[in-house]
Amino acid sequence: MAMPQTVYYSAPEVKIGASSGSSVDLSEFAKSAALTRQADALESSSMASRDRFYQAGMNSNQLVVTFNQSYEAAEVYATLEPLVGTQCYVECTPVDGAAVSATNPKFSLTNTYLEAMDVLAANLGELGEVQLTFTGGTYAAATS
Amino acid sequence: MSTYRVTKAFADKQPGDVVPAANFPLDDFYYLLKIGAIVPNGDVQTGPKRAKKVTTKSED
Prior knowledge:
heterodimer, A: mainly beta, Pnp Oxidase, Chain A, eight-stranded antiparallel beta sheet, two-stranded antiparallel ribbon, globular, B: three-stranded antiparallel beta sheet, 3 strands, 17% helix, 17% strand, elongated
């Protein structure tokens, strides 16, 4: 039986900025993106059972994204360097250029924190890349 | 009113769009200007407008 699959022939749409109104489309530089929605597990087990149980605590959401580095205006370095040490906005959709829908949801983190950025990461004979981790923030998934 | 030309896609704007500066919150505007996603469109007012010179004809 054929199973539905999602194949990424190109990067998903990735937008990052100081806010949603200024989030710059960096899809053309993205090599990978992983947005994780996580709720901390608080153990609520008791002696009434031999099973362990958990309930949700704080949310610990995260986006890890890798870009081919570019130092041109409004590209990777210029867009991201001012955001280091600030709360910012990121959004990703599975299919770049397609309308947001139930089958192409827009995932976002608002007020997510960018702690660090490698302003230079050079390896002989390789394209420059930069990997960023956005931590925390409020998660949302929009379908329209 | 000063307008700015979009050079890099952001939010729902595409390169080539012309947007009034007044459409942005101040923080977004400075950020977009700093990173080069918007550039002045040539009609940016950088100082106070000069008062129009008024001349009156002499009555005599």
